[in-house]
Design goal:
The complex is a heterotrimer of chains A (276), B (167) and C (994).
Chain A lengths: L6 E4 L3 H11 L3 E4 L5 H6 L7 E4 L9 E4 L2 E5 L4 H5 L4 H4 L1 H6 L6 H4 L4 H7 L5 H8 L3 E5 L3 E5 H4 E3 L2 E2 L6 E8 L6 E7 L9 E7 L3 E7 L6 E6 L3 H14 L10 H21 L5
Parallel strand pairs in A: 1-3, 2-3
Antiparallel strand pairs in A: 4-5, 5-10, 6-7, 6-10, 8-9, 11-12, 12-13, 13-14
Chain B lengths: L11 E7 L2 E7 L5 H8 L18 E4 L2 E4 L5 H4 L3 E3 L13 H8 L9 H18 L5 H8 L10 H11 L2
Parallel strand pairs in B: 1-5
Antiparallel strand pairs in B: 1-2, 3-4, 3-5
Helix pairs in contact in B: 3-6
Chain C lengths: L23 H5 L16 E7 L5 E7 L1 H5 L3 E5 L1 H7 L20 E2 L5 E7 L2 H8 L3 E6 L6 H5 L14 E9 L9 E10 L11 E6 L6 E5 L6 H9 L7 E5 L14 H14 L3 E4 L2 H7 L5 E11 L4 E11 L10 H4 L13 E9 L14 H19 L3 H8 L8 E2 L5 E2 L4 H14 L2 H10 L3 E15 L10 H7 L7 E7 L5 E5 L8 H13 L6 E4 L2 E2 L15 H29 L6 E4 L2 E4 L2 E7 H10 L13 E6 L16 E15 L6 E11 L6 H20 L31 E5 L16 H18 L14 H8 L23 E10 L3 H9 L1 H7 L3 E8 L2 E10 L2 E15 L3 E10 L2 E14 L2 E13 L1 H29 L7 H9 L5
Parallel strand pairs in C: 1-12, 10-11, 14-15, 20-21, 28-29
Antiparallel strand pairs in C: 1-5, 2-4, 2-6, 3-5, 7-15, 8-13, 9-10, 9-12, 11-22, 13-14, 16-17, 18-27, 19-20, 19-26, 23-24, 24-25, 27-28, 30-36, 31-32, 32-33, 33-34, 34-35, 35-36
Helix pairs in contact in C: 6-7, 10-19, 15-16, 18-19, 21-23, 22-23
The chains are: A alpha+beta (276), B alpha+beta (167), C alpha+beta (994).
């Protein structure tokens, strides 16, 4: 299980990375944390001709608060964000989510942007970015900013063009009055979610996103609902995920998970609302 | 371009600070750090169990941070600090606190997963120590969940780690 | 609690103490010597194995030229070479089934070796694998046991004439007598494929030394070394011309490294072809897909039982699914347990029907617990069914039927001689621990709050030290008479004293982490009055130099009972010799000579004493001073075989193991109705394994076996698709328990020494592999009991299975967004894709695109070229991929059922380095006011590596690819030109930005 041959180049700046992507297009791959890419290469599920390593770029590893968002650069590891002192105040949802993201050792190298770019339908960071209405900063010939809602287009598929780099992602800072809930079910601790639900509540309404069921994370917004109305809304959402039967689990069971975890996540979000 | 493109056809010199010593060797771009450590530099304490990042046997510290050497290229380690299980014991081979706790608690049987667990734990415990935090058993188990041990059922490993973390 | 190892508190023997291990310092500091850590000869080459992507296919031709031309590649071994230099592996039954080290004319499972590339490094060898072209002719795969048994089923081995390789019926006592006061209770169970896959995969280093010297191999094969003969025969050399060595350390084995042996043969042949030593390191994908598996079993078990619960007779009807070939030592999964099919119970009448079937799956073999998990899954589920149907407490039912303490040694009807025990007392001790844990209170409290909480028990007899003759029970008495009797379990050990009085021990046990060095040192230290740290134990094993025999190796929990016993016997021989020398020197009787505290002394005159190291060294330096009749040299080898292990008798009775421990488990678990998760809350395991040599190591064995049993119950399963594709190729698909899933367990010991083994010890390393899966299944059934009577429990208890059982409500939404078409849950990866595309062009125009190869080439995403090879048949070169994953497929595309301009069938099949793919479906066109509505309904099957590693993603990927195809068709037909990829690439090469 060894990768096929490739050329390798280490870059320090976003311009260099973009120049190489433009020159080599789909034959080049960005190597950031490599926690998905290297496994794919070792299994020879992909054979790019050039790896563009941005992992040691300090410019791209920045995490900073900017325009009401925590902006996380392309080379910033998940651990760097997870162990950030102010994370609990800035992004309380991510504080809940990080323990579910794979394992300590993987988060140490895996990048936030890499997970978003990979767009695994079960991954927690795309789900979090979506429920928080975050943005993805893409850099090709020019820079463009895409809302998370528009970025994830399908399984492992995004709005990123092959010559673009996910330069940063932006998570909006928690606002006063918001509460957050997160529930995930997986076979083992750290496994990909069979179903994960993230919820944000404030005094006006709810925003709920589900990962692991559809081919991408999907979100819904509702006014503050409770009781039967919430059940109906969650049920409608569960059906809208277009779950499929497969050898592991029936579609009905997947909808059941979405409803139950959805309920728990919403409850947690409502309970943790802070006073304004 | 600040760095050269390294050709797939060639061996490139790689220098790392390995357990405090400067070590030089050669690698093609695709050579995994695990293979480089084991077969180019001859440090076979780091084990390879899955080569897709799940089992954790190959975990080493890169610039102090525990990570999978099977998901890291040797060329990526060039110029950096790498620590492996061979560097854990003190002067004259005296076992570290962590190593002797593992021995005392029978926290290993075949020993194949052990080096990776030790390297993960060393990084994690050092970080907690810096923060002045003592982990709960559940936190120890979550950190350990990035490693698979087939022999012990984990009970003695958890005990050893709790003992060291709460010493 | 800094313990100082190896000090005798109050002069107690070392055996029985929780000593720290002699192995650990090396392992904790990176100085282990695992097979891949050893240096190799200069010039050693590296192998990679080409494996079948098909479950079942004819092997039409193979072209290895491109691979051979790759720089760095030195040889490619093919089936022809194997046929020239080797012969098929010998089989345990008399059937014309040929199993070669490489497929010769047909492949019969995904992952079957087809060729071996030998190159200067592993990376290059893998590059070359991608260059070998194999022409396969796919055949229908036989996947499930029921299908394999069915009339008219596709055959794996035509010469056999059936997929049933062996059928035997046995009858003991009077099982068919109608017991007037009894009723019949029955259950049917299926035990799945799984494996106690170790963390270290297989490693083989082999060299061919020419016709005179044969082969030299080193591997982490664990035995049984009876298979050394199988390897030598397959290489067509006498046993002494296949030298095989095992290094000191092995990264776990659990039975699984028995399956290294075919690769020893394969790499010997590869080395012969390459003319150089060859090293092969199995990777995890190879290991999970193609190394081995526990034998899957379908069993119906019926009891004749009295109303009070007393079982009078048992009837077993079992089918073992052994994969594509019956590989030695199969069908041993049946016969290891044959003599003790009545378990811990005193049942006089027994009837058995055993059938062995082949399927298109990886051959099975030893997996920790070997045969036990399968037998006890049926037997202990049956006991629970009896308890439920007769409304008897499950523990009381077991007690009623137990072999009683005064019945030992107890001869079971099929021949097992249960040597010692007190099952009721062990049960009492375990139940007391359960009470301490408040197990029943926890259940009451949980149920009172509406939770699903169950308690389960299991009682099993744990055999150890296998009878090398048990496998011959598969033959009829006449066949056995012809072949000659086989029996015994010869263990061996050597204890030697060196020039300075140092003690060295060598054993042929091939350990894999069980602490053999430590225990041998304890045993020898006790015999010679030394400290364990003074005793050097060498556990490397060399067939050319060590004392060994047919039973050598690391299996059937034989170390404590057999090997440690042989070490004790060898140490006692050394002691006896030294006693004669000392008595001569002291002028006393041998009975007065004693060994303690590192000295040898005269008990009658304590002034007469000498350090052991001095007295024991002297015979080397001054053999002339040896007393009369004492031979020079201080190196003693003991061979031991238990007398109780005889060959199967004429009535097919066989004692399959030398000694039998007892395990009683009780656990409480909770089922989460929200998620289907099963969480083990409390687990108590009681073991009577005779005398414990090192209780700390014993606990380690129990904890490890428990976590594997837990994995089998909840997580681990080798999954296959309906086409035989393998779907559990990575450790993200084959789920082993982590620290978060494995609870601590409560262990209760009791020690009833075995009268059979030299030290009174019994094996205990496999008990929980046998007891834990069924204990958890019983607890699960109990958890659901308030809601349903669950007669069948299928392992592993995945959330999908559990939620299906719980029949969760699935209310229809008030407003159905898109009525999702009900797609039946297919067997495996029958990938479905359905959809509709609106195309701004007439159906005729769309149809024209489909029938025009040039336009079609533009439509197919990732198509590099399309060549017509017949009417509406094309050969295409297509890159298919989603996200990071991409592969280039050589594809064939066929259009059929053409009904212009309404519908047609579009089918394709292809192969790439990622495996095979095939799909097809109906495309329907309907005119609309704005153009055409194209609807498609597709299904596809993916095999080989893509299915192995990507099962979680494949369905989504297939949907994306099919959607891309038809969207592209829409654009093309709608007049928006789609640039073919090659054009884009040419432009790019010219430097034009596109």
């Amino acid at each position: 299980m060894k990768p096929a041959a490739f050329d390798y180049v280490r870059v320090d700046g976003v311009e260099d990375a973009c120049t190489l992507l433009q020159r080599h297009g789909d034959d080049a791959r960005i190597l950031a944390g490599g926690q998905s890419l290297m496994a794919v290469l070792n299994m020879r599920l992909a054979q790019p001709s050039l790896l563009v390593d941005i992992s040691r770029s300090t410019a791209l590893a920045r995490i900073e608060v900017r325009d009401g968002c925590v902006q996380v650069g392309a080379a910033a590891t998940q651990a760097a964000l997870e162990w950030r002192d102010s994370l609990a105040q800035e992004l309380p949802l991510l504080k809940l989510v990080f323990p579910y993201i794979s394992h300590f050792q993987i988060r140490n190298r895996g990048t936030v942007c890499g997970s978003v770019a990979h767009a695994d339908p079960s991954a927690e960071l795309p789900l979090s970015l979506l429920v928080l209405e975050g943005q993805v900063v893409l850099r090709g010939k020019r820079q463009r900013v895409v809302a998370a809602e528009d970025f994830f287009t399908g399984m492992l598929s995004t709005a990123r063009a092959s010559d673009e780099l996910v330069e940063a992602v932006r998570f909006p800072l928690a606002k006063p009055g918001q509460g957050f809930g997160f529930r995930e079910f997986s076979r083992r601790h750290g496994d990909f979610a069979i179903c994960a639900v993230a919820a944000v509540a404030d005094d006006r309404g709810l925003r709920v996103a589900v990962g692991g069921v559809a081919d991408r994370p999907l979100a819904r917004e509702w006014p503050l609902l409770e009781g039967g109305a919430l059940d109906d809304a969650l049920n409608e959402f569960a059906w809208a995920l277009d779950a499929r039967d497969d050898s592991q689990m029936s579609a009905a069971s997947r909808r059941h998970l979405a409803r139950r975890l959805g309920q728990q996540a919403v409850e947690a979000a409502l309970l943790t609302r802070t006073s304004v | 371009m600040t760095h050269d493109i390294l050709s797939r056809e060639k061996l490139h010199p790689i220098t790392i600070e390995l357990n405090g010593q400067t070590r030089r060797g050669y690698a093609t771009p695709r050579m995994l750090l695990s293979d480089y450590l084991r077969h180019e530099l001859g440090l076979t304490g780091t084990h390879v169990g899955c080569e897709h990042g799940v089992c954790g046997a190959c975990t080493v510290r890169l610039d102090g941070v525990a990570c999978r050497s099977c998901l890291t290229l040797a060329v990526q380690a060039d110029g950096r600090r790498v620590e492996t299980v061979e560097g854990l014991a003190g002067e004259g081979g005296v076992l570290s606190e962590l190593q002797s706790a593992f021995k005392r608690h029978h926290a290993l049987q075949c020993g194949f997963c052990t080096p990776g667990i030790l390297m993960s734990s060393a990084d994690w415990l050092a970080r907690l120590r810096e923060l002045g935090r003592k982990p709960t058993e559940q936190e120890v188990r979550e950190m350990l969940s990035g490693h698979i041990c087939r022999c012990t059922g984990y009970t003695p490993i958890v005990k050893a780690l709790m003992e060291v973390a709460h010493a | 609690m800094q313990a100082t190892p190896f000090k005798i508190p109050g002069g107690l023997p070392f055996v029985g103490q929780r000593l720290q291990r002699l192995e650990d310092t090396a392992l904790l500091t990176g100085r282990g010597s695992y097979a891949d850590d050893l240096g190799v000869k200069p010039g050693t080459l590296y192998a990679a194995v080409l494996r079948s992507p098909h479950a079942h296919a004819g092997l039409r031709s193979m072209d290895v030229n491109a691979a051979l031309q790759l720089p760095g590649v030195r040889a490619v071994l093919t089936g022809e070479d194997v046929q020239r230099w080797g012969q098929p592996f010998v089989v345990g039954v008399k059937q014309p089934m040929q199993h070669w080290a490489l497929a010769v004319d047909r492949v019969r499972y995904v992952g079957e070796p087809v060729a071996v590339v030998v190159a200067e490094d592993r990376y290059t060898a893998e590059d070359a694998l991608d260059l070998i072209r194999v022409d396969y002719e796919p055949r229908r795969a036989v996947v499930e046991i029921d299908a394999a048994l069915a009339e008219g089923c596709e055959l794996l081995h035509e010469a056999v004439g059936s997929n049933v390789l062996s059928e035997r019926r046995f009858s003991y006592g009077e099982p068919d007598a109608l017991f007037s006061d009894s009723r019949r209770i029955s259950t049917t169970v299926r035990y799945p494929r799984n494996s106690c896959s170790p963390m270290e995969c297989a490693v083989v280093i082999a060299e061919y030394l020419g016709a005179d010297e044969g082969y030299d191999a080193l591997s982490n094969f664990m035995g049984p070394f009876s298979l050394h003969a199988v390897m030598a025969l397959a290489l067509k050399v006498p046993g002494n011309k296949l030298r095989h060595r095992v290094p000191r350390d092995s990264g776990g084995s659990f039975g699984v490294k028995q399956a290294v042996f075919p690769y020893v043969v394969l790499m010997c042949l590869a080395a012969r072809k390459a003319g150089a030593p060859v090293k092969w390191v199995e990777d995890r994908l190879e290991h999970l897909s193609a190394a081995t598996s526990a034998t899957a079993r379908l069993a119906t078990i019926t009891a004749d039982v009295r109303d009070d619960g007393r079982i009078l007779a048992l009837h077993w009807d079992q089918v073992d699914e052994v994969g594509a070939y019956l590989r030695a030592p199969e069908p041993a999964t049946f016969y290891r347990m044959h003599g003790c099919l009545t378990g811990a119970y005193d049942v006089a009448h027994l009837k058995v029907r055993n059938r062995v079937v082949v399927t298109n799956k990886t051959p099975t073999g030893l997996v920790r617990g070997f045969g036990g998990p399968q037998v006890y899954y049926a037997l202990e589920r049956l006991l629970d069914r009896i308890a439920t149907e007769l409304d008897i407490d499950p523990v009381a039912l077991r007690r009623l039927n137990y072999v009683k303490a005064d019945q030992f040694p107890y001869q079971a009807p099929a021949g097992a001689v249960l040597d010692s025990g007190d099952y009721e007392k062990m049960t009492d001790l375990a139940l007391a621990a359960a009470r301490e844990q408040g197990l029943h209170e926890r259940q009451l409290a949980a149920r009172a709050s509406g939770k699903l909480y169950g308690i389960g028990v299991a009682a099993i007899v744990e055999p150890s030290v296998s009878n090398m003759g048990y496998i011959s029970t598969v033959l009829t008495a006449e066949q056995r008479a012809k072949a000659g009797p086989k029996n015994g379990a010869i263990a061996s050990a050597t204890v030697a004293v060196d020039l300075m009085g140092g003690v060295n021990v060598t054993i042929a046990s091939a350990p894999a982490g069980q602490g053999h060095m430590t225990v041998c040192a304890q045993v020898v230290a006790d015999a010679l009055g030394l400290q364990p740290v003074q005793v050097m134990v060498n556990v490397e094993f060399d067939t050319a130099k060590d004392a060994w025999s047919v039973a050598a190796g690391n299996y059937s929990s034989r170390f404590a009972g057999a090997v440690a016993g042989a070490v004790h016997l060898a140490a006692m021989k050394v002691r006896d010799k030294l006693t004669l020398i000392a008595a001569d020197q002291f002028g006393c009787t041998p009975a007065d000579v004693a060994f303690a505290g590192g000295e040898i002394f005269n008990m009658a005159n304590s002034a007469q004493r000498q350090p052991f190291t001095r007295l024991a060294a002297n015979p080397h330096w001054a053999p002339a001073l040896l007393p009369k009749g004492v031979s020079p040299g201080l190196r003693e080898t003991a061979f031991w075989t238990p007398e109780v292990l005889r060959a199967p008798d004429a009535a097919d009775r066989v004692n399959p193991s030398a000694t039998y421990g007892f395990v009683f488990d009780i656990c409480g678990l909770e089922v989460d109705p929200n998620t289907g998760a099963v969480r083990v809350d409390r687990y108590i395991t009681g073991h009577d394994a005779g005398r414990l040599l090192n209780p700390a190591l014993a606990d380690g064995q129990i904890q490890g076996a428990f976590s594997q049993g837990l994995g089998a119950a909840l997580l681990e399963e080798f999954r296959y698709g309906g086409d035989g594709s393998f779907q559990s190729g990575t450790l993200a698909d084959y789920l082993m328990p982590t620290a978060c899933e494995t609870p601590d367990l409560v262990i209760v010991h009791m020690e009833t020494p075995s009268p059979v083994t030299p030290l009174g010890a019994k094996g205990l390393g496999e008990g929980n592999n046998m007891s834990t899966p069924v204990c958890i299944a019983n607890a699960f059934a109990d958890a659901l009991r308030p809601h349903m009577d669950l007669a069948e429990v299928q392992l592993p208890l995945t959330p999908g299975r559990v939620l299906a059982l719980l029949q969760v409500s699935d209310p229809a939404p008030k407003e159905m967004p898109h009525p999702a078409a009900a797609v039946p849950a297919g067997e495996g990866l029958a990938l479905k894709a359905q959809g509709e595309v609106e195309i701004p062009a007439t159906p005729e125009k769309v149809f024209a695109v489909l029938l025009d190869p040039v336009a079609l080439a533009r439509v197919i995403p990732g198509c590099h070229s399309l060549q017509s090879i017949g009417p509406n048949r094309y050969r295409a070169d297509v890159t298919v991929g989603v996200g990071l994953v991409k592969a280039r497929y050589e594809a064939e595309i066929i259009l059929s059922d053409i009904d212009a301009p309404h519908s047609l069938r579009l089918a394709g099949s292809g192969r790439s380095s990622l495996g095979t793919g095939a799909g097809g479906g109906l495309v329907m066109l309907q005119a609309t006011p704005t153009g055409t509505r194209l609807s498609y309904d597709y299904s596809a099957q993916v095999g080989g590596k893509a299915a192995m590693v990507g099962s979680r993603m494949l369905e989504g990927a297939a949907r994306i690819i099919v959607a891309q195809l038809f969207e592209s068709l829409g654009r093309q037909a709608g007049g928006k030109t789609v640039e073919p990829n090659w054009w884009r690439r040419i432009l790019r090469k010219l430097g034009v930005r596109v």
